[in-house]
Design brief:
This protein has 251 residues and is of the alpha/beta class. The chain is 41% helix and 14% strand.
Length: 251
């Protein structure tokens, strides 16, 4: 098992990276938002994190916010978030989605994680992981209230239910997608149904790239070929960090 640094050191390193990511975002004139809008987005992101349980970093969120803001104006498709917990990430993404006049479609059970028997143990950083039925639950009413307070709920559409049921019938073109679903089984469902809808040049991110069982799914050539219907795509950050990024290349 890898040796892990003390919690206080991990937290300090995370906070330092977050501050650097936020500063880079605010002062980056190439980001498709005015300076005051970039500053406001970061302020609202921190306000949401201080108020809502947010198991992500600002760096991870801003990486996908940049992806949203870089979408070509004429590129078809909605932005999809699969797994929103209590809505902190949804609120943050919604500012970028609203700025482009797009729709953010949010898939979640709103009942927490499904029953599972996945043998999670330690993640790639040496920290224990165990995902129990009902964990990471935010009710639909709670999520909507949080997004209304810290985000732009007017551009959001919420789709409650288990991924195997709701994604099966979803046929809308996808411009970009963000997965935070924890389980390997849920990752499979999301990739199986969302990746074929992702536009060429579109980006799909998963925040679960630190979980060995999820890594196994992402690395599985047979899964990509048989269930997704494509050859396994190139991935950035696989096996090295939480946030793994896939940019869809032409077939």
């Amino acid at each position: 098992m890898p040796t892990r640094p003390p919690y206080s050191l991990r937290r300090a390193w995370r906070e330092r990276r977050d501050v650097a990511a936020c500063a880079s975002f605010v002062f980056d004139s190439t980001v498709n938002l005015p300076f005051l809008s970039r500053l406001s987005l970061v302020e609202r992101a921190y306000a949401a994190s201080f108020t809502i349980d947010s198991p992500h970093t600002q760096e991870e969120i801003l990486t996908f916010v940049r992806t949203i803001l870089s979408l070509p104006r004429d590129a078809p498709g909605v932005v999809v978030e699969a797994g929103c917990y209590k809505g902190s990430s949804t609120a943050k993404f919604s500012h970028a989605v609203n700025a482009l006049g797009r729709e953010l479609v949010v898939f979640d059970s709103f009942q927490g994680l499904p029953k599972n028997d996945e043998p999670h143990d330690y993640n790639i950083f040496g920290r224990p992981e165990n995902f129990k039925e009902g964990e990471y639950c935010g009710s639909l009413a709670e999520v909507k209230a949080n997004v209304s307070r810290f985000g732009r709920i007017d551009c959001c559409r919420f789709v409650p239910g288990w991924f195997a049921e709701t994604l099966r019938t979803f046929q809308t073109p996808v411009a970009a997608a963000y997965l935070d679903v924890d389980l390997a089984s849920s990752t499979r469902e999301c990739l199986k149904y969302l990746y074929p809808l992702l536009r060429v040049g579109g980006t799909l991110c998963t925040q679960d790239g630190h979980l060995p069982l999820v890594i196994e799914v992402l690395k599985d050539d047979d899964f990509w070929r048989r269930e997704v219907g494509v050859c396994k795509p190139a991935m950035h950050g696989l096996g090295k960090q939480k946030l793994v990024t896939i940019v869809k290349e032409p077939a």
